[in-house]
Amino acid sequence: MSRALIIDDEGSLLEFLSLLLTQEGHEVQTAQSVERAREILADTSFDLVLCDIYMPDGNGMELLVEIREHHPETSVIMMTAYSSTKSAIEAMRLGAYDYVSKPFDVDEVKVLVQKALEKTQLVAENVYLRKELEQKYTFNKIIGKSRRMQEIFGLVERVARTSSTVLIHGESGTGKELIARAIHFASPRQRQRFLSINCGAMPENLLESELFGHEKGAFTGAIREKKGLFHEADGGTLFLDEIGEMTAPMQVKLLRALQNKTVRKVGGSQESPVDVRILAATNRDLEQLIREGSFREDLYYRIHVIPIHLPPLRERREDIPLLTDHFIRQFSQESGLDARPMTAEAMRILEEYAWPGNVRELENLVERTLALCSGDAITTRDLPPQLTRRGSLTQSASHLPPEGLDLEAYLDQIRADLMAQALEREDGVQTRAAELLGMSFRSFRYYARKVGIVGGDAEPD
User: What's the start-to-end Cα distance of the chain, in Å?
Assistant: First the structure.
């Protein structure tokens, strides 16, 4: 449904045009003064504005300039009872879509409105597609020759042709959003919008507003009506990242939306239908969360229609050279640097490293290493110390050096190393990192502060 604003000081004309456009299926607001039009435009965006040139409290041409400046996506049709070629030329020069003289021919107005709205839609689609094309190179990051990744690529291709809900599971940094984007752009919905939101990155009330939208005045700070992501993605795909972090009340509201295929804005009373494909992702064990009572079983089965598990990078080490070469080429091209090769010894260290941050960590490391490398090739000297240190610890873990060692210091180093990896894998959440290592939270916090992994003074457990 398109949204139109009609601005004219003649009440009968406003009533006529409002009825005409409403019958054509558009949502219409009206204003009888420039001042009132400015108030409405400050709160609401429109696809189309029909504006009289001569108003008692201002000039419609001035309002046209303001609309073009603050709402460039909106098509504007200027109206006047004084047919003038000069006014028509001036209106077009200032950015009006077209110009119409009173009295109107009804069919002419209908055609003009339809064409203006088609232009608005085309502009919106071009903006969206341009943004997506700017990001589309990231699909190339879904690289892998390993058997497990080839199986995933085949599954993605089959899943994309359906409208089924997909749950993508994997550790942080494995590329869950890239897989979601690949599904969308290989699907029949590829010409519609792909929108994403991190469900664990914002408080519950803000998440509800982002997903479902809100009415003006629904809460403090809601100074204007807002569309939610469900409406924005209508006809397309909505990606719910880290869905395992969603609070229990939000789980209930999401489940209702998925079951009924309708949403209600915060502060609103009307349910409106939406056609959105849901792709969800998590790095949590949702079945364990169900057993703990923190995730709804009915919501789990609603989103767990087709599961896709992304393996961590350490379980597909044969992909590391391929990914590394890709990132070297990518960052060299983006930064204008020479694409320096990586020596066999440096690559061996990368292949032996555990990669707690997965592909994202490898990507960041390659970018940093390439920027700081001063030689003709990337060698072990260019790698960060934690890689070479961890590699030597792995190789010598069960071998006593001829010169002996400080066992306590050695074990402390291994403990600190594994704790740092656990924190990185669990996005800095200490409780989950402690669980990963089988430690109590208090013990983990004590040792983490002791070795400086996290801030604060160490307090004995």
Answer: 61
Q: Is 283 a member of any domain?
A: yes
Please give the Cα distance from 154 to 316 (Å, whole number).
Answer: 17
Whether 111 is in a domain gets the answer yes
Distance of CA 87 to the CA centre of its chain: 44
- pLDDT tens, 261-280? 999 999 888 899 999 999 99
Percent of the chain with pLDDT over 70: 89
pLDDT tens by residue, 224-258: 888 899 999 999 999 999 999 999 999 999 999 99
CATH number, domain of 411, equals 1.10.10.60
Query: How many structural domains does the chain have?
Result: 4
337 contacts: CB under 8 Å, gap ≥ 6:
331, 370, 371
Which among 83, 77, 143 has a CA at the least distance from the CA of 113?
77
- 94/151 same-domain check: no
Return the number of other C-beta atoms located less than 10 Å from residue 161's C-beta: 11
**Last residue of some domain: 399, 427, 443?**
399
Domain for residue 137, yes or no? no
pTM above 0.85, yes or no: no
Distance CA 264, CA 209 (A): 10
Is the same domain home to 126 and 175? no
Rounded to an integer, what distance in angstroms lies between the CA atom of residue 378 and that of residue 376? Answer: 7
